[in-house]
Give the backbone structure.
Amino acid sequence: MEWVFRSDLPLYAQLVEKVKLAIISGELPPGARLNSVRDLAMEAGVNPNTMQRALQELEREGLVYSQRTAGRFVTVNDAAINSAKRALAEEKLNSFLSAMGELGYDRAGLIALLQEGEEKEHGDS
Amino acid sequence: MEWVFRSDLPLYAQLVEKVKLAIISGELPPGARLNSVRDLAMEAGVNPNTMQRALQELEREGLVYSQRTAGRFVTVNDAAINSAKRALAEEKLNSFLSAMGELGYDRAGLIALLQEGEEKEHGDS
Amino acid sequence: MEWVFRSDLPLYAQLVEKVKLAIISGELPPGARLNSVRDLAMEAGVNPNTMQRALQELEREGLVYSQRTAGRFVTVNDAAINSAKRALAEEKLNSFLSAMGELGYDRAGLIALLQEGEEKEHGDS
Amino acid sequence: MEWVFRSDLPLYAQLVEKVKLAIISGELPPGARLNSVRDLAMEAGVNPNTMQRALQELEREGLVYSQRTAGRFVTVNDAAINSAKRALAEEKLNSFLSAMGELGYDRAGLIALLQEGEEKEHGDS
DNA sequence: GTGGTCTAGACCACC
DNA sequence: GTGGTCTAGACCACA
């Protein structure tokens, strides 16, 4: 996992984002054990407390659970993961829509653009 | 204009991006005079050299031209602006496609998602 | 507010409990401004971060909201308060039921006990 | 027996409470021999004098008697135990009533709540 | 002044 | 070793 941070969002929120994406994309599969808070914090170059806060947030969202002595694990509840995936997709879609809106593209225009690219892909293959 | 920077891209490139977007979106209309390099650098809180480099890049791309004594101006060449818009849109589209790809959406899925939203908008109105 | 703590529950959780009760009981009415984090922490004799965590938890539960510079306020959403009241009541009821269960009282026995007391109250008045 | 203490009640009183509950609930049956003061104090992590005071209080209440050489025993007087049970129950009832009073429940409301739960239990079974 | 974030470092329970 | 809690103290944005 690459740990690069922006300055427009709290660190812990970006950590949540990163780990969540790893879970959603399957890089961290259901049931997988996460590294320890301390190790992850070292990796990311942040304070363990900051990493802890991020993981607790993920726990509250039901994507992760912790076992006292054994460590933290990705949930095995596929529904929770899929719901998070859906929410993230919607969020990305919306920010994309607004960004493209500034460039003068509305939904219809984007659909056209996508279909254009699709034909090209098929043409290439 | 808001000047917030990420750490994963050179400053000057982010400056180029920001100004380019302002031109493309019409916030800086064709023929408009840009503030002086020194003023823009102050605004953005960057070194004037960095801002200078960004503006030269925009000049190279034909979106801006400078007149020795009067300052820098947005191009009046609509074709250049439209071409930049097209390029930027494609770039954003691609990064969006790859991001959504990680979440399991391909072009067809995204088209469906967009059409879904479109119907909803019409239903709401 | 009295700040006395047990050792069987994290401090921050007890702080949540205390403030929640104050809101539910109306001691802190809807819309009321809470003292600043620092002041409350001083009052309670805890670290400001601990108090902060408690208040953020209340914020997540919708019982409190914060305004950047002005401070924190009790929600004006009566439904949220009533829902919290209901939940707290149920929780207290259950722990009471189990405690009385150890003494050999079941629901029916408790109802009898309560009715007994009720008659007595009426007799006294 | 779990030994966790609050800070709002003298230690010895909490010890009395704990042992009394054990007797009332039958965990310490009539006639059972209690461990020595020293052992009990160790278990609970308190000073033997404190434990001694608690046991003397229980003796005064007639729930425990001591035999010079053999140690301390739970009373075999069922009436005494029942009376203690009754008193404890009333005490718990009262503190419960006052706590629920703060949440807006009076005796009648609580009876309703209890009957509600009773029906549900029967429905579930 | 307000809330919010982050770090550093300590201590605890659990196994 | 693990997660969890707490403190102390710093810095920031906002108005």
